[in-house]
Amino acid sequence: MGAAASVNVEALALEGAKPADASDIGDTLEAAQAEVSRLRTLMSDEMGAMKEHAANVAAHDLHHNLGVDHTTAENIWDTYTRGKVLGEGVTGKVYELVNKETGDRFALKTIDKHLVQASMLHTLQEEIEMLKELNSPHIIKLYETFHEPGAIHMVQELAGGGELFDHLENQPEGHYTVHRAAIVIRTMLSAIAHCHELGIVHRDLKLENFVFESDHSEANMKLIDFGLSKKFSVARLRARGQSKSGNRDVETGMHSCVGTIYYIAPEILIESTGETAAGYTSAVDCWSIGVIAYMLLTSVPPFDSEVDAEIYRQILDCENALEFPPDLGFGTTIDSGAEDLIRSLLTKDPNSRATATQALQHPWITKHWKNEVAALHAEHGDPIDSPVLDKALLGSMQGFRKSNVFRKLALEVIAYNLTGQEIKGLQEKFEEIDTAGTGIISLPELVEAVRASMPEGEFEVGSENRASIEAMFDSLDTTHTGTVSYLEFIAGACGVVCSLPLLPPSNELPVVMQLTLLPPPSRFSDDAEADVGH
Ligand SMILES: Nc1ncnc2c1ncn2[C@@H]1O[C@H](COP(=O)(O)OP(=O)(O)O)[C@@H](O)[C@H]1O
Ligand SMILES: [Mg+2]
Fold first, then answer.
1. 112-139 confidence digits (pLDDT tens)
2. Most CB atoms within 10 A, among 27, 231, 288, 310?
């Protein structure tokens, strides 16, 4: 299609709702229907005529119930078989889990309650609940929990490509190229910005706690292991001899304690010496990302010694002790942009340290991200400046807007259960729209994405465009937070990769505008469905 095409929103909505193909979504659809039926009962039985209110309650209820909580562990082995060991951390081994019926693979982390400090047990459950609220392209999803008296089994999304620790070790020079390091650092910052936005501090960021979806060198990376390890009793772990990091002391020179000391922020050390009781904040995560960033670019830790006490001393004296290697191989030195970012993260005063959101705006990060987006377009055979929103994607989102509450909720259940591979293209779209990289889409970001997807000057034509985008944004934001989360975006956009029949229209808004779009890139065009599962 050479010329700009005039697109009818209603037609797009229907395009976004092709007839359901059971093989597309299989069990997921069944689960969605069960959830919808539960919510329908909730709404009709308990809420009576208060439909609007009920819809909001249902959306919140749904978001809290997406990760299923089983009060016993009885049925875990009815559903799953345990597979190979995926990795081992301070709390024990993490296994692959295979769903007996569907063959779908997950990761199983089991928390042995006997290893948890008694005083921490009561907050453990609360924190696990909080994990279910996290949804970002770069954070592992928690699907199900099974409880038994001595243990909690956590069924998580699987990322089978190994740890960042191993990926770094396997780099030809022992460190990443400047561009790849910038992208990996942006991924870490994006994941942690999302946590901090929700008031969650990870507290244990290190190379071992980032895992890749596949072996591919540019595979998507995800954060695991939320702050839980800090709840374990060091004495009990040692007694059980389960510190993997302990082995690594010998193998790689990496030292252990619960949370490797290389990554510890100065304020934690100050607190442990009793100099202050002020406690510490999300800034500790930003410090750890500074340490990891240094290691990705140089292959060595920024504060290093054979003796732990000397590492502590260097961390506390970071203003003087932070130096960059004079030669990174072939006579190259550290990139000045990278050095500037690392110094802003490895700032001793937590109040002056860059936050994750600020670091995401660092010119070194934004420059490399722009290049990355251009490279992704090239990889998909699209023009470098191809629009982020194409006909199919916009059609799916308009279709979502015109759906009644049940269809919206069903799509959210489906979105939650689609795997990273199934929605890879949509994840890329989300990240392109989320230009700030914070893991949520704001209204200005969506407006900008639509503007950039239209021919020069077309967007300014009338206020209907703006009103229509706002209406679309509001409908995607089912939880009314004023932003569109990753899950909400995928629910609105997943009509591109799978389909659910439109339920009889009840509360449709009138069509207010005609959108004129640039020719769509090939990514989600007619063959979009063929991409599923590849
Ligand atoms: N979802 C997952 N997918 C793939 N591997 C995982 C996953 N979760 C954990 N692992 C592997 O298991 C190791 C330990 O898991 P982690 O959650 O970090 O436990 P710990 O709290 O004991 O450190 C990780 O470093 C990683 O190698
Ligand atoms: Mg870990």
1. 888 887 777 777 777 787 788 888 999 9
2. 288
